[in-house]
Amino acid sequence: MATDISPFETEMNRGFLQVLVLVLLEKDMYGYSMVKQLEGKGYKLEENTLYPLLRRLEKKGLIKSKWDISKDRPRKFYVITKDGRAVRTQLLAFWKQQNDVLDYLIKETENV
Amino acid sequence: MSEKLETYLDEIRRYLASSKEKQEILTEIKSHIMEKAEEEYGEMTDSSLAKIIDAYGSPRRVAEKYMDDQQIIAPTFKGHLLRYTAVLFFVHFALTILAFIFKTRLLILPFFYIPKMDNFQALFYFPMIFIYDLGLVGIILYFVTQSGKDIRLPWPKLNLNWQNLADSRQEKPRIILLVLMILGYAALVYVYISYNTLFFKSLNPGGIESFFSPEASKWYSLALLVFLGVGILAYFVKFFAQSEWVNLIRSACQLVILGIVINRPIDNAIREFFYFDIHLIANLIVAFIALLLAIDFLKSLIILGIKAFRKKSLAL
Question: Looking at the 3D structure of chain B, how many domains does it have?
């Protein structure tokens, strides 16, 4: 029987989603629009994971939010903060470093 | 708004009990679900909402995701929880036995209040103190966890190796011991039948006297015979069933017998013989036996616990 990879996926996603959201929120967006945009790129973002994540990032001051009630339905818009940008830069560098190490190791084992 | 959506949000609200920003969380979820229904199904109908709600996840799962980083008791304290409870329960147990034997109540406020109890109340009191101790330790660890500080909790060293203890109890019963026990028991029964007592004040030939009045002699002797009989019977049963349950039931039965003995008003005949109050000395002796039995009882409980735990971890 093949191993169910969903728990591992969830673990890997945890960090990835933070960076993803920080990159996505360079411009104002609300939850549903974020899900839609990613879906367009073929990435399925779990809705019930997104909102708690947004809340956590907001609490840490990396993003900020504002309710827009000008339309007939209220929407909560999020956008990245200055602190968020700084964190994003570091996280992307970290992610690149992780990627490089993995690439290097995979190539090395292939050569053995 | 659809009734189904209302119910759904209400259930999430219930699971979010401790969250301060409940209303905001729910408004956001509601706005998301309604927007998706309109975008993807063109209109908000009961059936479109039902599909979207199903896809969003069960209320409990949704609420859980908001509490990912909130722990009631840090998993690293699991060992402390068990250890502290064990130590506290042991103290509590011993105090309860003492309170019971001396027929008094014990107060160590605000932590302990042990009421004056009779046999059966005492038996039911033990599970209660266990739950109390577990709860008390749980509350303390809860506050330590919530404080978020890196507090180093003392780690009581229980110098008993429970694993070895569990194995050492597996020893096979020996036939020779059983025979000796039965012979000794038969001798006691013989003495009892001949003299109607097992407690002698004087053994002068022709002047054999009992400690107690005839009626009390009979009563105390029979109690002793039953007490020993239970022990021998348990040993006999071990030839067929080598289970810790035998020890547990044996010590529980013997504790009950001791309890009955303690509860009996002391015989007047004995008071005339001694110049000082025998009551206290008798109680101290019985207290000592009761304490040993209580420790034995606890050991059995712990061993059974370890075995159940082992079985569970093997099954995993």
Answer: 3
